[in-house]
């Protein structure tokens, strides 16, 4: 898994590439927490190049969402979610928890 970040005026973009499983999910958590530690709580996760996400990856998403929304500081949204991951989000019941955008531009405009 590779994670790259890009900072915009009002939010941060984390691009996740590869597979998020029980081995790589802690890296995703660390990337989100690193932004939170710098007082960045408006985060977009670009999942366009994500191949697979396990339950550990979904737990990482929930942890990140919780940290961003705590004390009404911000929000974490998903962009360009692949069909397989979207189906898994629907199956697990996590889809209503996240704002999901088809592309990055509207996600950035959300903030």
Instruction: Report the biggest beta sheet as strand number plus sense, adding barrel if it closes.
Output: 5 strands, mixed
CATH architecture: 2-Layer Sandwich
The CATH superfamily name is STAS domain
Low-confidence stretches: none
- In the CATH scheme, what's the topology name? Transcription Regulator spoIIAA
- How many whole angstroms does the radius of gyration measure? 13 Å
Structural classification: alpha/beta
Question: Approximately what portion of the residues adopt beta-strand conformation?
Answer: 25-35%
Strand order of the largest sheet: 1-2-3-4-5
Q: How many beta-strand elements?
A: 5
Write down the CATH class: Alpha Beta
Give the CA-CA distance, first to last residue.
27 Å
Helix content: 40-55%
Q: What number of domains?
A: 1
